[in-house]
Design a protein that fits this description.
This protein is an alpha/beta fold.
Amino acid sequence: MKPKIIKIIFIVWIVAGLLFIVNVGISYQAKNIPDSVFKSTEDTQVKITGDYILFEPLTPYQKVFIFYPGALVDPKAYAPLCRKIADKGHKSLIIKMPFRFAGYGYKKPIELGLLRDSTKEYILAGHSKGAMTAAQFIYEYPNLIDKLVLIGTTHPRDFDISGSKVQIMKIYGSNDGVATVNAINKNKRLLPPSTKFIEITGGNHSQFGYYGSQLGDNKPGINIVKQQDILCKHILSFIE
């Protein structure tokens, strides 16, 4: 191959890589979130640190909801959901993964001492790759979590938690182009027979959070407000 052609190919790869980074930087940022979501009230305290976003009820609570964001997605994109759960009386945290890579930081609940109170009930949830690491956490630490919520994901795919005693619910969208219904059904055998499956008709992958359109996703058949309302309703029902 001629040096000139090699140079052209190299430049094309560099440009393509930069365009991908720019697209991710724009599309995966949190969008259209009301400022009130991040404001403390007389009922719910909001705290943002380098490790998590916390929504904590100021009245006694029994249940703790811990959320893992999807890969590269701004953690704030899941704040509206977690705020609604906190406003219903359940402590909610969004874990910030290092460099927004869902595969790292999934042990933070242990490292930060978030699971120390044995009198509380712990619910772990995640979206997309965040759901993968939530399932991995259950696989590695089977006795620390009481319930697991898998959202918009084909996982678990690489390990088997079909024998887990943890209560599990899997929520997915019929229009999801990233975690398709066929792929989700293919991996059912890796989950316990008691797993509760919830399909959101018209829901897609990106609208499980408040961010832009994700590469490979399909157009939704419902708006984000409706999809989020359905998602929150099922999670609250599962928690309570």
